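Incident log, structure service

09:12 report received: a user says their structure output differs between two submissions of the same chain.
09:20 pulled the input from the user's history:
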Amino acid sequence: MLKLKDIVKVYIAGETKVTALKKISINFRKNEFVSILGPSGCGKTTLLNIIGGLDRYTSGDLLINDVSTKKYNNENWDSYRNHSIGFVFQSYNLIPHQTVLGNVELALTLSGVSRNERKNRAIKALEQVGLSDQINKLPNQLSGGQMQRVAIARAIVNNPDIILADEPTGALDTETSIQVMEILKGIAKDRLVIMVTHNPDLANKYSTRIIKLLDGEIIDDSNPYDGSDNTFGAFEKVAKAKKTSMSFLTAISLSLKNLLTKKGRTFLTAFAGSIGIIGIALILSLSNGFQRYISKIEEDTLSTYPITIEETSLDLSSFMNYNKKEDKIKDKDPNKIYSDNIMTSLLQNYLRGIKKNDLVSLKKYLDNNEELKQYVSSIKYNYNANINIYKSDYSEYATQLVPYKIPKYMATILGPSYTQIEMMMQSSVVWEEMLDNQELIDSQYDLLKGVWPTNYDEVVLVVNEDNELSDYILYALGLRQESELQELLKNINNPDYVDKVTEYSLDELLGLTYKLVVDSSYYELQEDGFWASKKDDQEYLKKLLDKALDIKIVGIIRPKENVKATSISGAIGYTKQLTEYIVNENSKSDVIVAQKSLYETEQKSIFDGSKIDDNQYKMIMSELGDADLSQPSSISIYPNSFESKDKIIKIINDYNSDKSSADKIQYTDYIGLMMSSVTTIINAITYILVAFVAISLVVSSIMIGIITYISVLERTKEIGVLRSIGASRKDVSRVFNAETLIIGFVAGTLGILITILLCIPANLIINHYTGIGNVAKLPAVGGIILVFISMGLTLFAGLIPSSIASKKDPVLALRSE
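09:34 re-ran on a clean worker, output below:
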């Protein structure tokens, strides 16, 4: 039962008070057709809005099933309107961007009804009003009578207890008015219909009860009801109804359909919002590209310039820490000349700076450090393991190729330059151990033919980017003969002489074999009990080569295009397994075992039996090729980035932290600060540019906020309709937040797509002027984040307009045009 008890409604405008309703008391039956008549301004619509929960009474009480609504909060009133009230307005108040079916379904979405049931109930309601064949049309495609019937279908779809009709025929012709009244009359058979009208003829013809108002008071009630009959116990749903709530998908759907009705403005708004995103995305694309380019250069460069820790190191800071003033005599005789002992000081500082590093302990520490593995591309342990390479064909002469020796007869031709050239040639690396990181090597080299070496007796041949090998390398590999060198020297001063260019097929080079001799195998025990070197004994060498290890070229590689630095500086790359093989072969040789034993017992040399000191012993053992895999002569650590290099240095410093000054490790960082600040500079430039471009994002966000506010003004009546069917303030706010999110998503996505397109000409321009290809490339994660940033900014910009929308008075909103 619905009961109004002494309802008073006072409107306050400044200091003026207007009493619209004066102690109105009415009891309504469960099902009847009530018409409220009266002149304009008598309070009819106000009374209807109070009954419908759109407006609040000033005093008195509205009782639902004898339960007071004085303590109803906003959620209670929303639920009441959604479950128990259906509004029919004079101006229809259909949402223009929703179809007929969408308009009718709207109230059900707030009730949590499933999609299929929602559609079925909406179609059934439209069938009741005779519009089942119009469900997909928009309101502007219907006549006035059809639109009013849609409004009635929307009012009854949620099976409410009360239908409130405010001048439902006011905008219709006579024939259509009769059709609408017949529908309302039919509805009133099983529920309460309250209609406000100016037309007494319609009221007398269709109503079961007429209440007349004048100046806010009831002056007549044709069929009053005292509420004593207990059979009128309606509105049970109000107390039991759950909280109404619009799903976010519904809010998205409403806003999307609204935006699609203004495609041009929506696109321009989104495009304006995307400008800032485009700017930031382009900066990120370039920054990311250059960072990747620099990272690659760093990785390649660091594969050439590792952090090196020698067994014996020199502290250059100590060496250079010479202060001449400390040695000056304060009171000098001006008639005398004094010595300035610079050399003495420098030598003293040099000797103080020489330090022996404990590489055995450091190797154990590095091998067991799990953290280190993520920062290094490779760690190379270097040993006293000389590579002695001979031609595989030694039938006539055992020719040593590595180390390569310039023939003595060249001294007569080259004169004083011979020594310098010999030193230069001997210092040139021909055979070199590769880094133990196949992924890094694959990123630096193309395999032209063959396979990568996997065993200690397999190597690769390295050509330059132009598929060339220097003539020096050709001599060192035995591909060019000494006779050719003699011919060159004969004609060295002939300006018309041109050395021939030789060509080799990949198949000719692939499969070449060489003989490897370890240092210790050069020595033979003599009859007198001492050992002697047989390096220059051809007969001995030939026998030695008979059982020497065969080394085979199994692959030919070339530096990749655009690689700025490579890890193999020699022409032959071999695996660390070969180094380990050489160390192991030497360590078990008879000559090394004999020298160790003799020195431990008598401190004598195995070559002549003479007494030797510690330094002499070390020199002999080095000549014999003695080494221990647990005791490297130096350690080369290859960081995978400059940031990692700093981490590695920290790990070494952590190792030093609990060591005494004498036991601390000293190391050489060859690359040093050469490029360490490049990344920082690029990051700083990126941040500055992003900060400037972000201003456009702020401006576009403000613009979107303004446009959202305009949308609020344009959709004010829609806000009133939503509130009338039970939408809460949060629901209304959600609708406009959804609109800003859609705009933000479109702006962000549009910005990313435009950026991707702009990267194409940007890359062409950069490649044309710098030769660096494919620099501008937006990272996928960055693009996604920028879309979310765009959505977040537009959502933030729309908070104030959406808040204004949610606070709009539904009564005033319904009156807006």
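09:41 both user submissions now match this output. Likely a transient worker issue. Closing.
09:42 reviewer note: The chain has a mean pLDDT of 86. The two ends are 35 Å apart (CA to CA).
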